[in-house]
Amino acid sequence: VTTTTLPPGSRTEPVSTPPGGISDRSRAERKLGWMLAGPAFVVMMLVTAYPILQAVYYSLFNYRLTDPENKSFVGLGNYWVILTDSLWWQAVLVTVFITIVTVVVELVLGFALALVMSKALQALRPILRAAILIPYAVITVVSAFSWQFAFSITTGFVNSWLSWLPGIGADTDWFGGKWSSLLVICLSEIWKTTPFISLLLLAGLAQVPDVLQEAAQVDGATWWQRLFRVTIPNMKAAIMVALLFRSLDAFRIFDSIFVMTAGANGTESVSFLAYRETISRVEIGMGSAVSVLLFLCVVLIAFGFIKGFKIDLAQARGEG
Amino acid sequence: MSRREKTWWWIAGVVILLYCLFPIAWIVSLSFKSPADIANQQFLPSTATTENYSTILTGSASDLFLPALRNSFGICLIATFISCILSMFAAYAIARLDFPGKRLILSAALAVAIFPVISIVTPLFNLWRQIGLYDTWLGLIIPYLSLTLPLSIWTMSAFFREIPWEMEQAAQVDGATTWQAFRKVIVPLATPGVFTTAIIAFFIAWNDFAYGISLTSTSAARPVPAALGLFSGASQFEDPTGAIAAAAVVVTIPVVVLVLLFQRRIVAGLTNGAVKG
């Protein structure tokens, strides 16, 4: 997903309406606007709103694809089964863990990358920019494989490289336990998405007025003081937007887990649980209920962020 | 800048380069290992071989990999094309016209962008089976639009806003017809934005895994990421590691080429409309 906020001018400027209703001209403009933008809008709604409504409907049934005759209405029964099952709560816990760890590390690391890029020598800048786009553009599955093979007990080099560390030897099985598996999953995610965050933060950095920096410097502020008192407060909007979108993205984690552990050793995420119920077990009713719950989680996070941190998406354009 | 300071910036730059390229270097190195070398637990192969590439391009795994590569290119290009056309009209309307639905469309795009893919997969899986779209190109192109459209609308309307539209009238005042003004003035100004949006949309479609793995079952429509994910499960050949690495390198080549050619534009596209005003 890319992170975007309202582009400038998206607020509808007041149309000068003559008394007694809208003019023919603005009516024509309105019609043309919908004619041009309508198809894109309709397609977006068809591919998301319709399926989610369908999922809400299926989630009320006990419905197995291989056994369609016994489809029966169970009301909120599926939700009850899920919410009282430790599998669901474990998946939620894993997902929340991955989200918090990756987003925090990515933010700090991404900020450091952005600082270096903003100060980097002219000669280095294009090379760095190209390099930093590569993790962003590489397929998640490829990143997951690369990290999995690196840490794997048979094909990996990590064990032999890190054998000087206590507790790591040729027989260290990173994918044998829950937390070590999650660590490698997080590493792969962090590697792939940090560059994207750093690009957003770099654009945010460019908005911090130089005058403020210079004024602080003249007043004798140290580098750290300037960073925490001038730079960061002035790019709060950019940070919040990056944080919001990355959190939502991280919460939907699926690809890396599928490739690296396939949910083994309790590393199942909420998305993976929904996939397994629907596609592997063809429990359409149960899978739909998990999907709806996942959707509600995402809505809750987005809502929490926007209300809790008072993110005004329009403010992020630097107009705040 | 002092000499010492300069050295530090160089070191920081090199660290970033290593960070970005290391996992790619590893998968490339792995793809050149022979079966005997795969488990040597070293970063580099003891002797480089192209065996893995022959496996996926002409050998035993080619009937898995080549159709997947064709599917990926076909499906992603078509999805990118459709979403660019649709969002071109939408972005034009958002950038130039005044109509009350503007905000609604942008908010809808935002909502669709944060939508969890898996939540759509479940109902689509069932629906596609009923209406015969399961395991077809169209069955993937449609959901891919949910990935590419929101982003295309946002990115393109940010680009279109920066176009000096007055130039169109200026050209007409100078005696150009409406069509000439559009073709000679507006099209050249709008093309970079459309083009950049297309690249980013293509990346997103190319990266998809969840739809690919859930809505296909054979090589009729299965894209590369999904095929790669299943290489490990199905034991088509003895140790799939080398073949997976080689296939991973092949699918990474197009995106690396795009990045190297258009890095400046891609960065502008990703951050334009995001944090820049």
Name the features:
heterodimer; A: 320 residues; mainly alpha; two-stranded antiparallel ribbon; 13 helices; 2 strands; globular; disordered C terminus; B: 277 residues; 0% strand
Characterization of this structure:
The two termini of chain A are 24 Å apart. In chain A, strands 1-2 form a two-stranded antiparallel ribbon. Chain A is mainly α and 320 residues long. Helix content of chain A is 66%, strand content 1%. Chain B is built from twelve helices and no strands. Chain B has helices at 3-31, 35-38, 51-57, 62-96, 102-113, 117-131, 137-161, 166-173, 178-207, 210-214, 224-231, 241-271. The longest helix of chain B is centred in the N-terminal third of the chain and has 35 residues, at 62-96. Residues 233-237 of chain B have low confidence and may be disordered.
How would you briefly describe this protein structure?
Chain A is mainly α and 320 residues long.
Helix proportion range of chain A: 55-70%
The overall pLDDT average of chain B reads 84
Biggest β-sheet of chain B: count, sense, barrel?
Answer: none
Q: Which stretches of chain A are low in confidence, meaning pLDDT under 50 for 5 or more residues running? A: 1-15, 314-320
Compute the gyration radius of chain B: what is it? 23 Å
Number of helices of chain B: 12
Number of strands of chain A: 2
Structural class by SSE content of chain B: mainly alpha
Net shape of chain B = globular
Note the gap between the termini of chain A: 24 Å
Beta-strand portion of chain B reads under 5%
Biggest sheet overview of chain A: 2 strands, antiparallel
Calculate Rg of chain A over CA atoms: 24 Å
Oligomeric state of the chains present here? heterodimer
